[in-house]
Amino acid sequence: MLTEKIHEEFGGVVPQLASRAHQQNIVPVVHQALKQANITKEQLHAIAFTRGPGLMGSLLVGTSFAKSLAYGLNIPLIDVNHMQAHILAHFIKEAGFEQPPFPFLAMTISVVTHKL
Questions:
Q1: Do residues 41 and 65 touch, judged by C-beta distance below 8 A?
Q2: Structural domain containing residue 42
Q3: Is residue 13 part of a domain?
Q4: Under 8 Å CB-to-CB from 58, ≥6 apart: which residues?
């Protein structure tokens, strides 16, 4: 993944680089998602975004974009916990992927590394 490559030489995520990558990629990613879903933005009924916890710069990019899009389309805005979203993403129906049965155990791990 391209975004992982920009952090590789630093041995971990660099917040400033992450937020810049979010700014550069958010419009193309949303465009691609709408295209894959075979819908237009006018067919959306609500906009969901992750509010945190996470990297502030990246969260601000997503929040600002989501708020602007929802406002422009006059549709509801739904905030979602970032860590819960990672876990619940496993329930998105996609060919070739099974959904975990309830009950299940999930763990999210965040590792901070620094290259000296």
A1: no
A2: 2-91
A3: yes
A4: 15, 18, 19, 22
**Confidence (pTM):** 0.77
* Cα angle: 92, vertex 96, 99; to 5 degrees: 40
| Percent composition of the chain: helix, strand, coil (DSSP 3-state, to 5) | 55, 10, 40
pLDDT tens-digit profile of 80-102? 999 999 888 888 888 898 888 88
Question: Which residues, 6+ apart, have CB-to-CB distance to 51 below 8 Å?
Answer: 59, 63, 79, 80, 81, 82
| Per-residue pLDDT, 116 | 46
Q: Which residues of the chain have pLDDT under 50?
A: 1, 116
How many Å apart are CA 104 and CA 90, to the nearest integer? 11
Whether 67 is in a domain gets the answer yes
Round to whole Å and give the CA distance between 91 and 68: 27
* Number of domain units in the chain: 1
Looking at the DSSP assignment, which residues form a beta bridge with residue 48? 78
Q: The domain spanning residue 14 has which CATH number?
A: 3.30.420.40
